[in-house]
Amino acid sequence: MDKSFDAAAAESRISDAWEANGCFKAGANAKPGAAPYSIMIPPPNVTGVLHVGHAFNNTLQDVLIRWHRMRGFDTLWQPGTDHAGIATQMVVERELAKQGKSRRDMTRAEFLNHVWAWKKQSGGTIVKQLKRLGASCDWSRLAFTMSGAPGAPAGEEGNFHDAVIKVFVDMYDKGFIYRGKRLVNWDPHFETAISDLEVENIETAGHMWHFKYPLAGGQTYEYVEKDADGNVTLSETRDYISIATTRPETMLGDGAVAVHPDDERYKPIVGMLCEIPVGPKQHRRLIPIITDDYPDPNFGSGAVKITGAHDFNDYGVAKRAGIPCYRLMDTRAHLRTDGAPYAEAARIAQEVANGARVLTEAEADALNLVPDHLRGLDRYAARQRVVDDITAEGLAVMTRADDPRLGKDALKPGAEGAETPVPLVEAKLITQPHGDRSKVVIEPMLTDQWFVDTARIVGPALEAVRSGRTRIMPEQHRKVYFHWLENIEPWTISRQLWWGHQIPVWYDADGAMYCAPTEAEAIAQSGGKPLTRDPDVLDTWFSSGLWPIGTLGWPEQTPELERYFPTSTLVSGFDIIFFWVARMMMMQLAVVGDVPFRDVYVHALVRDEKGRKMSKSIGNVLDPLELIDEFGADALRFTLTSMAAMGRDLKLSKERIAGYRNFGTKLWNAARFAEMNGCKPVAGFDPSAVTQTVNKWIVGETARVRIAHDEALSGYRFNDAAGALYAFVWGRVCDWYVEFAKPLLAEGDAGVVAETRATMAWVIDQCLILLHPTMPFITEELWGAIAPRDTMLVHAEWPSYGTDLIDAEADREMGWVIGLIEEIRSIRAQMHVPAGLKVQLLQVEIDARGQAAFARNAAMIERLARLSSVTPVAAMPKGAVTVAAEGAVFGLPIADLIDVAEEKARLEKTLEKLGREIAGLKGRLDNPKFVESAPEDIVDEARENLAARAAEAEKLAAALARLASIG
RNA sequence: GGGUGAUUAGCUCAGUGGUAGAGCGCUUCGUUCACAUCGAAGAUGUCGGGGGUUCAAAUCCCUCAUCACCCACCA
Q1: Which bases along strand B come within 7 Å of a protein CB atom?
Q2: Residue A236 in 3-state DSSP?
Q3: How confident is the model over A890-916, as pLDDT tens digits?
Q4: Cis peptide before A555 (omega within 30 of 0)
Q5: Is the Cα dihedral A480, A485, A490, A491 positive or negative?
Q6: Is residue A763 within 8 Å of residue A682, measured between CB atoms?
Q7: Most Cβ neighbours (<10 Å): which of A429, A571, A672, A832?
Q8: Å from A602 (CA) to B13 (C1')?
Q9: Considering Cα of A848, then A851, then A857, then A861, what sign does the dihedral take?
Q10: Nearest nt by C1' to A298 Cα
């Protein structure tokens, strides 16, 4: 065997062997009559490359799957990828752009061919990367959320598309899906609607302008402001109403100005008309001043302009008050260029405002109220023009340059100075919605879209978690889940993209809708009319919401669906609880009436060592593949598993991974030691039949760690499971058992040597088995290297031994031996005894139990404490250092080597510490309430502790006294 | 504006009622035949502040402070 594990060389070889032997296939290694255990992989984007988050998520899944597989469950880990509508279309369009091509120059079918071609070429990347991590998915079942879609090339067959379409049609028929013109989040970059969840609200520096809307016909009113006590603080005659806005360009689409019904300041003018201070003077529009509960009298001027087509709040007000919504922008958020010239549109709008005319929604939408000189401008360019125009006209509200409201980032055109009036433009932090993919500011847009009426299917999803039919762990995420579902809004599912599942709805010439799985059926429904299909596709999450049943063959009642659904565990990051987990719950319950999974384990985010989210722009991204290259997949996996404490973000650093790489090397060398000492696995070895104390002890320790590991993993406490294994392998097996075994193997009689070899081989095997779920590669390699085996380690039998292997007497004895060795080592180090020098141990007094323990383990103690001999003496000689152990006193005659003062200091320090402990224990035991109320075992433990500490203190006090007599 | 979580050794973090641990780092020593990707020994903590419950609090409750994240329509 080499000195260390060559991960780079071994990993691909081992991976190939696992796959070649079908080790990961559904049901592989299942015991007869085994219970199913299934996990659905969160499908990574087909465009994706493996990042640390994937590595984390999939490591945890693999640990669970490998553990269950070894335990003989009928396992399925279902892999696959997601077509990721927007993300993929974005990538392919970018690729096309490099070749000077654009989607707009080709037909839909042509573009989709490009996407499929791209998917074929690079869609397998992430799958290969998952394999490098060691993910033991049943790769023969690799699924894709667009398989079987029309236009899919050979090799992309499957029925996922059919399942998605069937669900859409069913939900449409039940009325769970509807179409309507609504204000939706519009991404001007991708030119599509997106759902609420795809919007990120980001606080950005912005401005709030204050403008005057003149009252129609030069009317005036007395504007009165009062303080909280009702004292008048301002009273003046005004011919305008002051409006504050962060988006002046939307003034063009105003349909009204709203004030709160209780706002005394504006009561005189409610019902009047005021003028929008933009556009050609001769066609300036007048709009009504209305009341609504929405305006907050304490914010801004208390008056809000109502632009129903470009603001969600305004939309609500407009709907309530019957104010028309005038759309100002096109799909790119440029001001509209279509429709009649401004003069004509403004005239019609004015008739509406005057109450002389009523527009239908469609008529209002067709009206382009953008003044001619602003048409075609980008929204931000338009904003500047509008502000300039109004300011030039003198309709900006003026204030003094030292007005604190202006803030340091306020726009202050013209002269500076406190006495100089400037337009009131407040510098303000504005929370603005951004597209999570495009990063551009979202424009609320009035468009026709498809929606899932989530309120109608949310009930069962709430109930399933409330009742515990599906468990969400850690518990805190239940609240998040409940909160979101209890306040759920309709889900916008249509996207104005080409890559995705096209909505199965057709329209006839009159606009009547026909929803059917195929065009032929839609035509039949219509009675044979010519139809055109809705061009939109479905939100990616609509199809991934069907991932559990879709991958198992639904709507066919396949054996896999029968066997593995509902799935056992879902492992997901908290960031997609709403996007994915909640929607899978709702949709599976709505479609097949059952929960998609029993347990949901929600893990945290991986961050960099400074706790920042990893992002390309910061440049702090750790590439898992590079980490695997550098440290091996096992090291990365063990690190992630060790850090997977529930509910907390984890900060990943290379140092930590290096530490666990070293752990692998440690294991490797323990196995190497075993090999070099002829420790071969013995068929039929019975761990309960060993006779040597040290062997009994390590067998018991092995049982302990198996129990601890399994309990931890059953509760999804991955870090505890990994920690227990680490402490056992390094802290018990390597630090002690291997060292104990050395003298036995070198000097023991034939029987002892044979038993120790067999035990050592067994212990190493147990280490490999127990570590395999977290460190599959190195353990598989060692498994094969140690001996010829019937099966690969991936299919080895998981042990079930329990506490019956723990021998209390062996435990106690080895605890005593280890304690004694540590004590002697500690004294040697503190007294500066040269490490290589062997010293004599004097046995001053020892009870029968200690005598026996010492005798059985003398060779080990001598070796590990570096003793030259052990000599019984009648009394502690002068100059010997006292070594106190339970039931015994030893001495180290190292007088000529030590400094009396130093030894005195050592004893005093130890005594002081003991004294504190004794005082604490005494204090508790002297308190009658403690003895009465505390559990018996706690009290007993305290008593035993006190006795042991007191005995030790006594011995050390004696030693100190003796030392004083010398000095 | 709501909500959730965090605050423990120099750093990163475990620890859900019994008197505080790990890894890394640090100090000293070590070429003992598995391993220097190692070994031995060691130092370092008013467990964020304050109050309460309890025989007993890092742990439960209240409060304050700071930080992080999520959700949210203040023009």
Answers
A1: 3-6, 12-15, 18-19, 22-25, 28-42, 54-56, 69-75
A2: strand
A3: 999 887 766 777 778 778 888 888 888
A4: yes
A5: positive
A6: no
A7: A571
A8: 19
A9: positive
A10: B74
Instruction: Give the number of other CB atoms < 10 A from CB of residue A714.
Output: 10
Question: What pLDDT score does A920 carry?
Answer: 84
A352, two tokens: 């509406």
Taking C1' of B23 and every protein CA, the nearest residue is A656
Helix (H) or strand (E) holding A211: strand A199-214
Q: What is the mean pLDDT of chain A?
A: 90
DSSP state at residue A287: E
Name the one residue in this structure whose structure tokens are 């000689």: A877
Query: Is the pLDDT confidence value at A616 over 70?
Result: no
Retrieve residue A144's tokens: 């894709």
Please tell me which residue lies nearest to nucleotide B70, judged from CA to C1': A480
* φ, ψ at A675 (rounded to 5°): -60, -45
- Model confidence at A608, pLDDT cuts 50, 70, 90, reads low
pLDDT in tens, A669-687: 999 999 999 999 999 999 9
Pairing of strands A606-607, A421-423: unpaired
H or E element that contains A516:
none
Going from the C-alpha of A95 to that of each of A100, A102, A115, A501, A885, the distances in angstroms are 9, 10, 10, 22, 75
For a pLDDT cut of 90, what percent of chain A falls above it?
A: 62
Token reading at A594 = 């059952």
A474: Cα separation from own chain's centroid: 12
The H or E element containing residue A726 is helix A718-726
Residues 6+ apart with CB under 8 A from A318: A255, A256, A306, A308, A324, A325
Cβ atoms of residues A641 and A774 within 8 Å: yes
**B50 C1' to A916 CA distance, Å:** 27
pLDDT of residue A504: 97
Give the per-residue SS3 of A441-486: ECEEEEEEEEEECHHHCHHHHHHHHHCCCCEEECCHHHHHHHHHHH
Q: Shortest CA–C1' contact from A746: which nucleotide? A: B33
Contact between the CB of A928 and strand B at under 7 Å: no
Which residues of chain A (288-347) touch nucleic strand B at CB < 7 A?
Answer: 294-305, 311-313
Residue among A802, A687, A703, A818 at smallest CA distance from A755: A687
Quick one: residue A316, left, alpha or beta (phi over 0 = left, psi -120 to 50 = alpha)? Answer: alpha
Residue with more model confidence, A439 or A651 = A439
User: Whose CA is nearest the C1' atom of nucleotide B15?
Assistant: A720
Sign of CA dihedral A557, A559, A565, A570: negative
Q: Which of residues 938-967 of A touch strand B (CB under 7 A)?
A: 938, 941
A332, A191 contact by CB (below 8 A): yes
In one letter, which amino acid is A641?
T
pLDDT for position A219: 93
First to last CA, chain A: 56
A482 contact to strand B (CB, 7 A limit):
no
The answer to whether A525 CB sits below 7 Å from nucleic acid chain B is no
Report CA(A605)–C1'(B13) in Å, whole number.
15
Query: Measured from the CB, is A711 under 7 Å from any atom of strand B?
Result: no
The residue ranking higher by pLDDT, A956 or A116, is A116
The separation, in Å, between residue A669 CA and nucleotide B31 C1' comes to 18
- CB A823 within 7 Å, strand B: no
Q: Please check whether strand B approaches the CB of A647 to within 7 Å.
A: yes
Strand B atom within 7 Å of A934 CB: yes
Is the CB of A661 within 7 Å of strand B? Answer: yes
